[in-house]
């Protein structure tokens, strides 16, 4: 495991399980061993700012852990092919380095068979800094708070509108009641004519006399 990194074994195993299931980037990479300068294929899983590697994709325990905080990751030129090398040429084309910020720690040399895969690994590892994760979390939290404030403002506005509509309904009902009262009052003030024809007859008779 990486020097200078201390993990409780249980915690490391738990994180490795999470990395295998939910890691942002997972897959096979060829890793250069420092002892014999030989390339061996391992299964890697990146979770937040920790890079795990396993003997294969079925392994339950990690063979190594690298803490990526403060590291840099970049593409590297393919080394010159030895005349006695037995490896196919296409496997020596896509290299990248993980350079750690710890003094005396050798870079991690990795390679992929596909250039697109190599570029993705470099990009994901470059974004794996824990400080960047904290910054991203703060940005997301600010956005969340802003959305909550907008929702609260809209909720208050909706309640105010509902109150205004209820007040308007009450006012409409009051006006309707006043109109009914006014109509009844108006009807009561009009004169009543029981027999208008009879009245005209009496007036005519008096005129003849």
From TrEMBL:
Signal sequence segment: none
SMART domains assigned to the protein according to its UniProt record, in alphabetical order: PH
Residue ranges of domain PH in the record: 22-130
Region (Disordered): 184-209
Protein name: PH domain-containing protein
Organism, scientific name: Perca fluviatilis (European perch)
């Amino acid at each position: 495991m990486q020097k200078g990194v201390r993990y409780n074994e249980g915690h490391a195993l738990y994180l490795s399980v999470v990395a295998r299931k939910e890691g942002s980037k997972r897959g096979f990479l060829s890793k250069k061993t420092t002892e014999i300068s030989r390339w061996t294929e391992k299964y890697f899983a990146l979770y937040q700012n920790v890079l795990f590697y396993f003997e294969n994709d079925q392994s339950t325990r990690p063979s190594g852990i690298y803490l990526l905080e403060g590291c840099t990751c970049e593409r590297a030129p393919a080394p010159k092919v030895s005349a006695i090398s037995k490896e196919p040429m296409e496997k020596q084309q896509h290299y990248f380095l993980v350079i750690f910020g710890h003094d005396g720690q050798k870079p991690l040399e990795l390679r992929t068979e596909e250039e697109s895969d190599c570029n993705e690994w470099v990009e994901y590892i470059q974004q794996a800094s824990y400080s960047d994760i904290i910054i991203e979390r703060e940005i997301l939290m600010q956005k969340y708070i802003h959305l909550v404030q907008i929702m609260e403002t809209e909720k208050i506005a909706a309640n105010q509108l509902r109150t205004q509509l209820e007040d308007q309904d009450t006012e409409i009902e009051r006006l309707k009641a006043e109109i009914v009262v006014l109509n009844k009052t108006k009807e009561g003030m009009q004169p009543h004519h029981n027999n208008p024809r009879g009245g005209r007859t009496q007036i005519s008779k008096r005129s003849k006399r």
